[in-house]
Amino acid sequence: MRITLTLSVILLITGCTNQVMKYPETKKIAVTDTFYGVPVDDPYRWLEDDNSAETAEWVKQQNEVTFAYLSKLPYRDKINKRLTELWDYPKVGAPFSISKQWFVFKNNGLQNQSVLYTFDSIGAEPVLLLDPNTLSDDGTVAFSGMDVSPDGKLLVYMIARSGSDWNEIFVMDIASRKLLSDHIQWVKFSGLACYADGFFYSAYDKPEKGQELSNRNAGQKIFFHRYGQTQETDELVFSNPDLPQRMFSASLNEGRNFLLISESESTSGNGLYIKDLSKPGSKITQLAQGFEFDYIPVDMIDGKLYLVTNDGAPQYRLVAIDPGKPQKENWKVIIPESKNTLESCSYCGGKLFAHYMEDAKSKLAVFLPDGSPLNPVELPGICSLGSFSGTSDGTTAFYSYSSFNTPGSVYKYNTETGKSELFFAPQVKFNPDDIVVKQEFYTSKDGTKIPIFIVHRKDIKPDGTNPAMLYGYGGFNISMSPSFSVSTIFYVENGGVYAVANLRGGGEYGESWHQGGTLLNKQNVFDDFIAGAEYLIGSGYTNRDKLSIRGGSNGGLLVGAVTNQRPDLFKVALPAVGVLDMLRYQKFTIGYAWATDYGTADDSEEMFRYLLAYSPYHSVEKKDYPAILATTADHDDRVVPAHTFKYISRIQELNTGKLPTLVRIDVKAGHGSGKPTAKVIEEYTDIYSFVFYHTGITLK
Known about the structure:
Methylamine Dehydrogenase, Chain H
């Protein structure tokens, strides 16, 4: 995105980027909330109105200042050129089978969206089925989910526009490639499960006009849609009007004779229901209730539902449940809990493939359906398993893995012999052997040992002079395992040290690790991250003037909180699509679902005071701050951009230092999923121009 600059804005940006910044004046309106007798000012609340002309004008003026500044930074064009070169390599996902057909996603290198292909048998040439790049002129329509009718004739797929979480469902005749009349709207956080003459999906009521991207999402329902009918006639399958904040998702086992319904109140923990579709009139039976534990279905095997759960096993285990006798005393443990965290399990070729997390690295074990162990699938060193897919009765499965210096490679696996062979390896425009990937451990404030991945060129020495970037997340039971990013390669090849810290709040070591970074333990996450930055400096990887920190979403909260708590520790802060107002986050879209990790100010005075103390928007003080480039997007309806608008306004108001505090607001983009390749390259060009300038990196 580029903006035509007005004369007044050009005058604000002088030829020297290191002068004291002047920002558009952001008005303040006296707004005060009182919590437990404590008044809390919120002078920038007016920026929460995403439909107001004043907010639109504020966005325009902030973007003018930001892009005027970024356009003057050195190396911009060369950074963009090299990022484009690195991104331009063919990408292939792991093939997967539905209804006796095989499918695969491919991208020729710079396509904005990956393209769906199909083939009848292994070895056959894939043929194009659906190209999302043809659905918009700018690549902002993204493919977001699919299933295939049991007879293999119809493709049912979801798309998202401009990065929004709202989805639409369409139906295509696979043979003719023609769309049917079916069109479903206001779908969000939905499964998609084809059965007989239609499909199950989850949707909300149509929101008020103008409130689509900010209003609370409530009252989700599961429907069944019959092909050729209108959405208004769809059959209501499951809902709970008395508890409108609950969410429901429908899925089917591979044999498509059991409907599985997951019920949740937040991002972790769910109830589980089952219905035998082969028996007319059968009722929906609850298998697991409450939201303290996770119940993740694998498949029906010999009449039993196999599922992964942390109920009675913080590191997770695999159990089998008889739907006719769902009581816990009747559960059978198939794979018991072990010292490593069980991430997921697949059933392929009559065998169970268990994906474990060992110190945040992937391991793949193999078992018979009775739990008897077989030889594991050997994965190469420090890597992350992307997927493992096949059919219950087939002999061929596919899996992919990646690492920080290895883009997604796909292997074909024979479930009878246990042998793997390379199916696809991308040809990249750098030498992976020139890059070191290693794991080290450091000690946090309270003595907890924290893993950290470190990536750098082989010739880098720990002499304290290298630029470094520390990335973190630390929340919602999500593990930060090794993953490939073109932007990381670009940073590393220019002498940067890239580090990912496995903070508490994540899922690397099971539920206890997750809980150690939630609610009244949230400060542990920030302490872990601060200790990681101190470790990089103390170990000679970098110094304070060369260090950048980065994180997105919950990681944006992390960066915002740490920036306020330790602005002396690093030179650049990059909070992306962050949760930055901890007293009001639950009032927008799906924010209430995050309360199990964060708590809310309404829970108790103790919780309110804890949130207030670290909330990035509320804990900004009058002092010197590092260089800040906050990023958000106008269609982010997961973490609404008002979080970033309010935070950056307060930073600009109170910052006493000379370094810039800027906000980059993307248009026709959302929280990140489905963002077109062109927009991603453009955003990283701006980010690295900013980082290179402020940490003194010379482009190689």
